[in-house]
Design a protein that fits this description.
The protein is mainly α. The chain has 14 helices and no strands.
Length: 336
């Protein structure tokens, strides 16, 4: 009987486990849930501003905020359990675009949660906002450190700069600027704004160049909506610093960008529904927020109604995939 040539013998694999090993609870919590949740949690904030501007009761906004805070606590607990079991899973998440976006959206959702509890617990609100900001900055430091170490790795990978998801890293901290100004930390708010807006502006410019060169794959096109975030946030920040003219110009620019995005909806969604659509909620809510802060209540209500319907459909389709593990499979989520 002839023997297999040396080096050509098939590799031996272990027999499959029987019965199959059960995944531990929360071991595959997909971070991508936070890209949708961050936008969903921003809706009550804008709704509250609109209700106050129209002299209507804010009970509906407060009730929605309470429900979303409870759900956010559950999601944060699930993600924390996964990370505590195997901290190196963060490194695995950084390799996958949707998971990386989810991690930074989780810290942004913490900043938003701090704003949601401000009417009831101002001190706790500021504390939670700062904790989330520090977590965001530490996570960004870890990410860029790992990216620098891997800069010479050959072949396509998800560490490449730029991509629209980087706006979550750059523009995310701008969420805390109103809280810093409210605590009379104006200098810190100004420094943070400059540090965030410079790379966010460069990423926006790079995204425009990539768009003109048609470099964005169809499944990742919904992430282009994230370029709305720094423009809308910059409008709100300018208004907080008393620069009303600049805020009006930036708000108008954000609104024009939103119209262009709506006009290109067919092109953006050519690949069909994916969990990546969740990242499109938060930037649009920011546009509604900038309109509400600038006094354009009618425009804010129109955008708010449209994004509320959109977020309800997208979040329902995303979160119903979570319990059975389908969402983790779709987003290639590592197991802790």
């Amino acid at each position: 009987m002839s023997q297999d040539p040396a080096g050509l013998r098939p590799k031996r694999f272990p027999a499959p486990e029987f019965p199959p090993r059960q995944t531990r609870l929360f071991a595959r919590t997909p971070p991508v849930i936070f890209t949708a949740l961050a936008g969903l949690m921003s809706l009550p904030l804008v709704l509250r501003e609109v209700l106050i501007a129209t002299d209507l009761p804010v009970a509906a906004a407060d009730m929605a905020a309470g429900l979303l805070l409870a759900f956010w606590l559950f999601c944060i607990f699930a993600l924390a359990v996964r990370i505590v079991r195997r901290p190196s899973v963060i490194k695995d998440d950084f390799r996958v675009i949707v998971s990386r976006n989810g991690l930074f959206a989780a810290t942004i959702s913490g900043m938003i949660a701090g704003q949601l509890i401000r009417p009831l617990w101002p001190v706790s609100s500021f504390g939670l906002t700062l904790v989330a900001l520090v977590a965001h900055l530490v996570l960004a430091l870890v990410f860029f450190t790992l990216a620098w170490r891997r800069r010479r790795e050959s072949g396509p990978h998800s560490w490449a700069w730029p991509d629209p998801g980087m706006q979550l890293i750059y523009a995310g901290p701008l969420v805390v600027v109103p809280a810093l100004i409210g605590q009379s930390w104006t200098g810190a708010a100004l420094v943070l704004s400059v540090i965030c807006l410079v790379p966010a502006g460069l990423a926006l410019l790079a995204g425009l160049i990539g768009l003109l060169r048609e470099q964005t794959p169809a499944p990742l096109r919904p992430m282009l909506v994230l370029h709305l975030a720094p423009v809308a946030l910059c409008a709100s920040v300018a208004l907080n610093f008393g620069q009303e003219t600049l805020a009006a110009v930036l708000g108008l620019a954000a609104l024009v960008m939103l119209f262009l995005i709506v006009a290109a909806a067919g092109w953006l969604g050519r690949a069909g529904f994916t969990p990546i659509w969740g990242c499109a909620i938060w930037p649009v809510v920011l546009v509604a927020d900038s309109m509400a802060q600038g006094g354009a209540t009618a425009t804010s209500v129109a955008v708010l109604l449209a994004v509320s319907v959109f977020s309800a459909v997208v979040c329902w389709r995303i979160f119903r995939l979570w319990p059975k593990g389908k969402l983790a499979d779709m987003t290639n989520t590592g197991e802790a």
